[in-house]
Amino acid sequence: MSRVGRWVSEHVVMVIALLVLCYMFLPIFFVVLMSFNAPTSRLNYEFQAFTWDNWLNPCAPAGMCESVVKSIEIGFLATVFATILGTLVAFALVRHRFRGRAGTSLLIFLPMATPEVVMGSSLLALFTTAGLAGTLGFWSILVAHIMFCLSFVVVTVKARLAGLDSRFEQAAMDLYANEWQTFWRVTFPLVFPGILAAALLAFSLSFDDFIVTNFNHGNTITFPMFVWGANQRGIPPQVNVIGTVMFAIALLLVLSGGVLQRRRER
Amino acid sequence: MSVAQFGGQVAAEAGGPGAGEVEQERRRGRVGYLLLLPGLLWLVIFFLVPTVQLVATGLYDPNGSLDTGYAMTWSFSNYWDVLVQYQEQFLRSFGYALIATIACIFLGYPLSYAIAFKAGRWKNLMLVLVIAPFFTSFLVRTLAWKSILSDNGLIVETLKTLQLIPEDGRLLATPVAVVTGLTYNFLPFMVLPLYASLEKIDPRLIEASKDLYASGVTSFRKVTLPLSAPGLVAGTLLTFIPAAGDYINSELLGTPQQRMIGNVIDNLFLVQLDYPAAAASSVLLMVAIVCLVVFYVRRAGTEDLL
């Protein structure tokens, strides 16, 4: 009995941790399950019967695949702009001296600490006041996404840069590399994993955003906007196919990234 | 890579910075401003200016409309009016967010602790599993809870068999469903900072406390918990702030009786088109959150986080 007791006390944290992980995975399991569902009515959230139909006709619901494409376009452009602007800011913060450092840090921190509903509504208030309410659409979503992705890029790249040993660059200079060579041959390759991580984060933030987009989308429908609209009429099961595919692609990317890194370390 | 490694050794032997540093430093100053400019300009135009505009919109004449335009009448009463009218939704938002945050602490702490100290070679896999739910859409995941908690679903049936809820009881469309969704959606934001600060703890400190005859509980209370405080505070903020402003969970899993302030702001802005009231509610939400955060961070004694 005491042996059982000791085993429990030693492993109880792990058991709780695994249960919590199950809680986190329960919805994913249901997303996959419901992608094979053949619903009997439009407002149906219980598993009825197995079918391949949703996977064979993923674009059957009108407008859904178009919305996915729109989300990818916005996500890609927002990622490119936010990553470039954010990386420049991160370099300035870590490598350069300038006045107003505290104010700059605050300006970068604030968007991350502001509820999305406040950010979205304040942009709408600005656009409306500027008389742009009728033109809202692709451009306003893009502008908003770049804005909230920027801070996350700065923080991610900054962490990588701050952990970088500046003696590598000094050594390159000592070996007669000029500043340009030092940057592209030494600094950039060392910081690149941080930039890549920041870009992936930015893309997933943009692709998945609903609240800010909802205030500034005009008539443009992104995938989250499509799901929100569909919820009023009943969710087509194909939404879960898209959810499953997204999950599989992201998991594959992360796992292959891990394998690559392990191989490089050997 | 090899250039960098070789360079590191040389630099370690050569030591500190060389001559001509002063001239270079001055030039770098100008480059610094150039690097900052585009990013900061973007944040000023599309974050700072809109926030100021939001405060101003909250002061517009409440009798105006989008078609006729709003006059600036410095109507401070707008703020008081929405506070009175929507106090229920304000209180509910902070209540739900508080409960969800506490639930996240109780679920997230054991998970982060296990990853940091018990997982061994499974550490990276468990971390990937923590962020994996992010890989699929927020809305699709929240809708999945609709299936999980559905009236004839496994969970409701089990609770009925155990007589924990009455025969006609349901989970969907109740506060329980909304808080469950909030807890689920923001749990990773608790786990990641907690793990980061637990990971930094030197295990020898915990061993030392055991050598000094501290029991497991005492050692946790006096060593592990205080050392993980920064992660706990960061995690609490990252969970509480988005949860208080969220309206996806209450819209998808609740009913009008579970409306939060986010639903109100969305409705005022996009359905009723009452911009002054909408802006005032939005500003009040932000002010309330800032006050709570400052108070909490002061009390927790971790000012350096801000």
From TrEMBL, chain A:
<feature type="domain" description="ABC transmembrane type-1">
    <location>
        <begin position="68"/>
        <end position="257"/>
    </location>
</feature>
<dbReference type="InterPro" id="IPR051789">
    <property type="entry name" value="Bact_Polyamine_Transport"/>
</dbReference>
<feature type="transmembrane region" description="Helical">
    <location>
        <begin position="12"/>
        <end position="36"/>
    </location>
</feature>
<feature type="transmembrane region" description="Helical">
    <location>
        <begin position="241"/>
        <end position="260"/>
    </location>
</feature>
<feature type="transmembrane region" description="Helical">
    <location>
        <begin position="106"/>
        <end position="130"/>
    </location>
</feature>
<keyword id="KW-1003">Cell membrane</keyword>
<dbReference type="GO" id="GO:0005886">
    <property type="term" value="C:plasma membrane"/>
</dbReference>
<dbReference type="Pfam" id="PF00528">
    <property type="entry name" value="BPD_transp_1"/>
</dbReference>
<keyword id="KW-0813">Transport</keyword>
<protein>
    <submittedName>
        <fullName>ABC transporter permease</fullName>
    </submittedName>
</protein>
<feature type="transmembrane region" description="Helical">
    <location>
        <begin position="74"/>
        <end position="94"/>
    </location>
</feature>
<feature type="transmembrane region" description="Helical">
    <location>
        <begin position="136"/>
        <end position="161"/>
    </location>
</feature>
<keyword id="KW-0812">Transmembrane</keyword>
<dbReference type="InterPro" id="IPR035906">
    <property type="entry name" value="MetI-like_sf"/>
</dbReference>
<feature type="transmembrane region" description="Helical">
    <location>
        <begin position="182"/>
        <end position="205"/>
    </location>
</feature>
<dbReference type="InterPro" id="IPR000515">
    <property type="entry name" value="MetI-like"/>
</dbReference>
<comment type="similarity">
    <text>Belongs to the binding-protein-dependent transport system permease family. CysTW subfamily.</text>
</comment>
<dbReference type="GO" id="GO:0055085">
    <property type="term" value="P:transmembrane transport"/>
</dbReference>
<keyword id="KW-1133">Transmembrane helix</keyword>
<keyword id="KW-0472">Membrane</keyword>
TrEMBL record, chain B:
<feature type="transmembrane region" description="Helical">
    <location>
        <begin position="223"/>
        <end position="244"/>
    </location>
</feature>
<dbReference type="Pfam" id="PF00528">
    <property type="entry name" value="BPD_transp_1"/>
</dbReference>
<feature type="transmembrane region" description="Helical">
    <location>
        <begin position="94"/>
        <end position="113"/>
    </location>
</feature>
<feature type="region of interest" description="Disordered">
    <location>
        <begin position="1"/>
        <end position="23"/>
    </location>
</feature>
<dbReference type="InterPro" id="IPR035906">
    <property type="entry name" value="MetI-like_sf"/>
</dbReference>
<dbReference type="InterPro" id="IPR000515">
    <property type="entry name" value="MetI-like"/>
</dbReference>
<feature type="transmembrane region" description="Helical">
    <location>
        <begin position="33"/>
        <end position="56"/>
    </location>
</feature>
<feature type="transmembrane region" description="Helical">
    <location>
        <begin position="172"/>
        <end position="196"/>
    </location>
</feature>
<keyword id="KW-1003">Cell membrane</keyword>
<keyword id="KW-0812">Transmembrane</keyword>
<dbReference type="GO" id="GO:0005886">
    <property type="term" value="C:plasma membrane"/>
</dbReference>
<feature type="domain" description="ABC transmembrane type-1">
    <location>
        <begin position="90"/>
        <end position="296"/>
    </location>
</feature>
<comment type="similarity">
    <text>Belongs to the binding-protein-dependent transport system permease family. CysTW subfamily.</text>
</comment>
<dbReference type="GO" id="GO:0055085">
    <property type="term" value="P:transmembrane transport"/>
</dbReference>
<protein>
    <submittedName>
        <fullName>ABC transporter permease</fullName>
    </submittedName>
</protein>
<keyword id="KW-0813">Transport</keyword>
<keyword id="KW-1133">Transmembrane helix</keyword>
<feature type="transmembrane region" description="Helical">
    <location>
        <begin position="277"/>
        <end position="297"/>
    </location>
</feature>
<keyword id="KW-0472">Membrane</keyword>
<feature type="transmembrane region" description="Helical">
    <location>
        <begin position="125"/>
        <end position="144"/>
    </location>
</feature>
